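All the exercises in this workshop are built on plain-text protein records. Sequence and backbone structure share a record, each on its own labelled line. The question running through the whole workshop is how a given chain folds. The record below serves as our worked example for the rest of this section.
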Amino acid sequence: MEKIKAVFNWSGGKDSAFALGRVLDNENIEIVSLLTTVNATHKRVSMHGLREELLDLQAEAIGIPLLKVYVPEGQSMAEYSRTMAEQWTILKQWGITHAIFGDIFLEDLRRYREENLGSQGITCLFPIWQEDTGKLPDVFHRSGFKALLCCVRENQAAALGAAVDASLPALLAPGTDACGENGEYHSFVFAAPFFKKPISFVTGEQVFRSFDLAKADGTTEVQGYWYLDILPA
């Protein structure tokens, strides 16, 4: 049986890492490349704020080539969609037929991905879809992954820098999804069962920024976030 050739959409965070672990156990799927969008101005992973150098170290630890798509700061959702459509046209020429994501339960986001990529003949896969997000931080940690929160919404400031494990939900604001699936936080994975070695790092300053965020339905909303700067050791 010929293997499925896929690109894995890598964010550098826990959901992405957990989903990748599932896929690497599947003998019918070949991950040709990781794919990450990077802010062209600041050279950081979009939304996570993770330095490009750390992204490169993650890819090196995983042992899969990394394709970085540089996007301008403040790019609209329509412009972003055009940028990615151009990229997927190239990826199809590589023989890529599938795109893999670490989404868990956001139906509108899944529909957006499936409609946009489906129109280009790309099939989307979601390895951890409908996982129990309340239990996932603990399962993630007990499975040999290590991560910390590198970006949180302004009402989650107390959790910035916290480890992703069973203790995390108690640090989050009431009503927060334990996995931050609604964008409450983002994380940085520095160790995983499939990493060749853990990533050494030091933490730096905390920075607050606010954004007009584009939503899947085409509207925007202002959100404030605290970022923990993380640097390679």
Summary: The chain has one domain: 4-232.
